[in-house]
Design a protein that fits this description.
single chain, 370 residues, alpha/beta, Aspartate Aminotransferase, domain 2, 2 domains, three-stranded parallel sheet, 13 strands
Length: 370
């Protein structure tokens, strides 16, 4: 089967993990610190705090901004459930916004309509890797902090600037299917030193010094630490960070290959009236192309047809305001309509030209027979 996603690994990741295992230090340690330094530089920010997931990153960001009971946070409905769940973790209310029908990013006009005196933060998701129009969002948001959900967007750029440093805090995913894939992992990026130090304490249960930090202290009572705030255990570790360092070196090349594959899909499917491709990159927006999400007539039948021919597809995502856990929510008509049409095509750097052409030919065959 041709997969929807596949991590871009070779001997370098294997050797990086072996090196960490041979070192005897596999937890939160020097490789994590190195990754944090290099990823901060990559994103053009002063601080990066490594975590075990983007979910933990979103939760941490909301904690750092003081989101709590009685507050509202505006989120897009077309996203993974973590974006909404993390608001609830912090006892606040997610306010779901509709999406732009072309980019599938958050609808900024709907954001403007839904801002209230209780709005404590806005979380735009750079859907599929395409950056949200951050300049316009900042105009809409005014003084309200913006948390970038960059789960899809490692390597994406907005007006020449990397995502992750365009709002108050950026949140990244390094899950196994992401462009920079550690297997699991995440990070927050920011320019506020005090917030970063608080995040480092809170990712380690509120403890003010990690074990690696305490090994560098040449004094009595090196084992002592303080806990002034109750935190979580959500830190990155050196095995994952070692993979991440290799992946970071490969990221630009890998994203370039993703763009090539999307261009092949665009060219190969352009004469099919039943298929609509996502918008191309422009002068202001360079997508990381985590997803190639087409709109397709007879989406469900097409997905089954492709599966039977050995091609896996996906749907990203069911609008999260429709899930039972969020109760009765107002209709968001664009997201609900688009959900019935979208289909994720296979997209990863190791996908060969022959496989891409086979996918294109199989899609054409489906519509010829209807």
């Amino acid at each position: 089967m041709i997969q929807v996603f596949k991590p871009y690994y070779d001997h370098e990741e294997i050797e990086a993990v072996a090196e960490v295992i041979r070192s005897g230090w596999v937890g939160l340690g020097p490789k994590t610190a190195q990754f944090e330094k290099e990823f901060a530089e990559f994103c053009g920010v002063k601080q990066c705090v490594g975590l075990n997931s983007c979910t933990a990153g979103l939760d941490m960001a909301l904690r750092l901004l003081g989101v709590n009971h009685g507050h509202e946070v505006i989120v897009p409905t077309m996203t993974f459930v973590s974006t909404g769940h993390c608001v609830v973790y912090n006892l606040a209310t997610p306010i779901f916004a509709d999406i732009d029908k072309d980019t599938l990013n958050i609808d900024l006009d709907d954001v403007a309509r839904k801002i209230s005196p209780r709005t404590k933060a806005i979380i735009p998701v750079h859907y599929g890797g395409r950056p949200v129009d951050m300049d316009r969002l900042k105009e809409v948001a005014g003084h309200i902090p913006i948390i970038e959900d960059c789960a899809h967007a490692s390597g994406a750029r907005y007006k020449g600037n990397p995502v992750g440093g365009l709002g108050e805090i950026g949140c990244f995913s390094f899950h196994a299917v992401k462009n920079l894939a550690m297997g699991e992992g995440g990070a927050i990026t920011l320019n506020n030193e005090a917030m970063a130090q608080r995040a480092k304490r809170n990712r380690w249960l509120g403890i003010d010094k990690g074990t690696w930090d305490r090994t560098k202290l040449d004094r009595s009572y090196w084992w002592e630490y303080h806990v002034d705030e109750i935190g979580l255990k959500s830190h990155l570790n050196d095995i994952l960070a070692a993979i991440g360092l290799v992946q970071l070196r490969k990221l630009e090349k890998a994203n370039m290959r993703r763009r090539q594959i999307v261009s092949m899909y665009r060219e190969g499917l352009k004469k099919l009236s039943q298929i609509k491709m996502p918008p191309e990159d422009g002068d202001d927006f360079i997508s990381s192309w985590h997803l190639c999400e087409i709109k397709a007539e007879n989406r469900n039948d097409l997905s089954i047809f492709l599966r039977d021919k050995g091609i896996n597809t996906g749907v990203h995502y069911k609008p999260i305001h429709l899930y039972r856990c969020y109760g009765n929510r107002p209709s968001l008509p664009i997201a609900e309509k688009v959900f019935s049409q979208i289909l994720t095509l296979p997209l990863y750097p190791d996908l060969s030209d022959d496989e891409v052409n086979f996918i294109i030919d199989t899609i054409k065959a489906f519509y010829r027979n209807r």
